[in-house]
Amino acid sequence: MNLFRVEKISTVVRRVPVAVPVRTSFGTMRDRPAVFLRVTDENGTHGYGEVWCNFPTVAAEHRARLAMDVVGPLVLGVELPSDLAVFEWLMARLHVLALQSGEWGPLRQVCAGFDAAIHDLAARRADLPLYHFLNAAAGARIEAYASGIGPETPAATARSAAAAGHVAFKVKVGFGREMDLASLATMRAEIGPSRRLMADANQGWTLDEALERGGEYMTFDLDWLEEPLPADRPVEEWRTLAEGIPVRLAAGENINRRSRFDAVLAAGLLGVEQPDVAKWGGVSCCMAVARETMRRGASYCPHFLGGGVGLITSAHLLAAQAGNGLLEMDVNPNPLRDEMTAGFLDVEEGGITLSDRPGIGIAPDDLFDLGSS
Ligand SMILES: [Mg+2]
Q1: Res. 371 pLDDT band, cuts 50 70 90
Q2: pLDDT tens, 92-126?
Q3: 373 pLDDT more than 50
Q4: 139 and 114 share a domain?
Q5: Residue 225, in any domain of the structure
Q6: How confident is the model at residue 61 (pLDDT cuts 50, 70, 90)?
């Protein structure tokens, strides 16, 4: 590894209203926020990262302030870990502050953003696309699925996603049995019997509800059932559910400790692992979890529901595994994603071919030049 130093950091917060709120079983997004990071080396080369900030959306600015005033100074001008394990390196330094402040989530999210930005910078310095920098044997082709399909207009949303090239779809459930069954029936009728259909309960059920609903919803031939239980429920509950319903379980976007990922993988409870690169672990830890996921015979399908930087980073992480996972692509309108990724994540028959430009390929400097803080 050619050692380098970060000489400058920048952050930018953007928030755009949306005409149709994005509903989940636990809350509604009435606008779409995003926090982007930029790190710059001594040559003026940039790297870009994104910090998760979806809920509550009003706290996006808080993450940006933590990035500039608390976490950023730890990466400025110092020797970075030679293996680029930036997330764990930063969290070790922030451990006491996180205990004292209780800000575990925001600090993890900001550290994840810096980890990704520094990997992007390192890949650009090596003049390699990020997926190739992470795994020289990886190819540029990935598979994707349409996500974020709510209970309001599932047929119309699925139709427009299919027109955009998608062949696999995930619908949100956890809104009550009647509404869930209506959504699932509409989706299955819309996409036909052979397309992949997944359901996401967003941690909305108790074990008893998950056993009952999960069992009933299997009549729609689900490929996976996502977050049927809250992420922190005991391993025994997840085991009871995994043994009780005939579908692979998915989770990971709300797992925030390596030991927990290892525990659920070792117990064989999840068929699909979904860490979020902007929320926990950054590129370094998500790579490690993804490798372990595949070693255990499960699928790595990166979670993402945010802006363009994090989505393209997720796409490169997925490509770097060269496995059978799918990229989560939110199909709800989000200008902070769509303008940035235009031409870079075009879906054709469910697949995407990544750009061979260095790093994650895009360089959203106009955002930073408009609004650096
Ligand atoms: Mg989900």
Answers
A1: low
A2: 999 999 999 999 999 999 999 999 999 999 999 99
A3: no
A4: no
A5: yes
A6: very high
pLDDT of 370 over the 80 cut? no
- Tell me, in angstroms, the distance from the centre of ligand 1 to residue 371's CA: 31
Q: How far is the CA of 203 from the centre of ligand 1 (A)?
A: 9
Does the pLDDT of residue 241 top 50, yes or no? yes
Between the CA of 172 and the centroid of ligand 1 the distance, in Å, is 8
CA 371 centroid distance within chain: 25
Q: What is the pLDDT of residue 2?
A: 58
Question: From the CA of 200, how far away is ligand 1's center (Å)?
Answer: 6
| CA-closest candidate to residue 315, choices 333, 341, 293 | 341
Tally the domains of the chain: 2
- Ion ligand 1 — residues with CB under 5 Å? 200, 226
Q: Which helix (H) or strand (E) is 57 found in, with range? A: none
Cα 326 to ligand 1 centre (Å): 13
Tokens of 189: 């009728």
> Which ranges of the chain would DSSP assign to H, the alpha helix?
60-66, 72-75, 86-93, 95-101, 104-125, 130-134, 154-163, 177-191, 207-217, 235-244, 258-266, 282-295, 308-321, 335-341, 365-371
At residue 74 the predicted structure's pLDDT band, cuts being 50, 70 and 90, is very high
> Is the domain of 342 the same as that of 221?
yes
Q: Residue 135 and residue 95: Cα distance in Å, rounded?
A: 31
Distance 303 CA to ligand 1 centre (A): 7
Token pair listed for 297? 């015979």
Residue 269's CATH number:
3.20.20.120
- C-alpha 356 – ligand 1 centre gap (Å): 29
- 165 and 41 together in one domain: no
7-21, 64-78, 187-201: segment of lowest average pLDDT = 7-21
Specify whether 26 is located in the same domain as 165: no
Tell me if 1 is assigned to some domain. Answer: no
Range of the domain at 312: 133-353
Q: Quick one: pLDDT at residue 372?
A: 46
